[in-house]
Structures are given as structure tokens and as C-alpha cells.
Amino acid sequence: RDRFVLVIDEAPRFMDARSIFLTRLQHAWDTAPKLENSKLMLILVGSSMGMMERMTDQNGPLYGRVTHTIKLSPFRYADFREVFSNASEHDIIQHYAVFGGTPHYVRMAYLEGKKLDDAIMSLIVTPQSSLSREADELFDIESIREPARYLSILTAIAQSNLRLPEIANATGIQVEQLPIYLNK
Fold first, then answer.
1. What is the reported pTM?
2. To pair with 68 at 20 to 30 A between CA atoms, which of 44, 47, 102, 115?
3. How many whole angstroms from its chain centre is CA 22?
């Protein structure tokens, strides 16, 4: 049967305290007769896992109303290689090492044909550039407690401390506690 599909991208933006959209959506969901059998398919999309989880957890406005969840992961290196098969292996490794497999970053850094050094300067290093505050914003969006600890871990890794004891030594965080931070 034909369905009306409504996709709301970046739905976590509706978690803003001034917005009553999610409360109204919750009310409509609860009061609409047989919504689950209707021709409406509502898809909420968001890039912030923490915010999406808060929308649907026990205290969230959409708790108990999710019928399906799909977590999309970044491109794996093998996928990246396949998509950019015309590029040299050296370029692919370098771009992937810096920007990973997040499609938005790949588009900004790789598809615009920038050289890696230029992409790093224009997207990360230059103040007010697209990604210069990305880590801080992610910490805020994901409501990371103790961002200083996460930043110290990232700094330690950036300084070539790659083993848990090395990271612990550089950060002052106990080895046993590191996996908690690294997993998040």
C-alpha cells in the first residue's frame, strides 16, 4: 500500500528547550487513532547518538514510540577505497586517517579535490573553519561530562601515546578507567 513518508533530518535540534515540537509529536502519536496502521511513516534522523537516545529514553518525549532503530556507521576503510578507487592508495590512506569515514567530512575534504594539507588548514586549523570546533561541539551535544579528561586522552594519543599505559601516564587517568572513556 502507498505510504506517506515524512523524514525529519537532524531531529535532535527539536530537543531545544524552546521547541515544543517533540511534545506535540508525542501528543499526536498518543491521541491519533490507530496511528500504527495509518499510511504515515515517520523517520527521525540525527547525527548525535546521545541526543537521539535522550529523545527516546525513559524521560524522553518519544519513549516507547520507536518501532525501529538503525545505527549507521562511518565508511570502513575498504568502503572508502572502493568509492575512491581512482585515487592513489597513499592519498586514500592520508585522507582516511585525518577525516575518517564520516560522509560529511569526506565530502568537505576529499570530494572538493583539496590537497590534504589545504583541507586540514581550511577545515580544521583555521579559526572559524567548518571543523575547528567540532570536538568541543560534539562534547556539548553528547553531554560529555568531564570533557577535559577526553581532551587530555585525545592530546595524549595525538602525541603518539598509543598504548593504555602510555595514555595513562600522559593523562594521569588510571589504566583501568581508560577503556570507559575510549569506548565512549
1. 0.55
2. 102
3. 21
Provide CB contacts within 8 A for 122, sequence distance 6+. 114, 129
130/134 Cα distance (integer angstroms): 8
Residues 86 and 89: their CA atoms lie apart, in Å, by: 9
Average pLDDT in the chain: 81
pLDDT at 177 over 80: yes
**92 vs 89: CA distance, rounded Å:** 5
Distance of alpha carbon 161 from alpha carbon 166, whole angstroms: 5
**In this predicted structure, what is the pLDDT of residue 17?**
54
Q: Are 152 and 173 in contact (CB under 8 A)?
A: yes
C-beta separation of 21 from 12 below 8 A: no
The DSSP code sequence of the chain is ---EEEEETTGGGGGSTT--HHHHHHHHHHHSTTGGGSSEEEEE--S-HHHHHHHHSTTSTTTT-------PPPPPHHHHHHHTTTS-HHHHHHHHHHHTT-HHHHIIIIITT--HHHHHIIIIISTT-TTTTHHHHHHHHTT-S-HHHHHHHHHHHHTT--SHHHHHHHH---TTTHHHHHH-
Please name every residue paired with 43 in a beta bridge, in sequence order, or none if there are none.
Answer: 7
- Highest average pLDDT, of 11-20, 86-95, 163-172, comes from 163-172
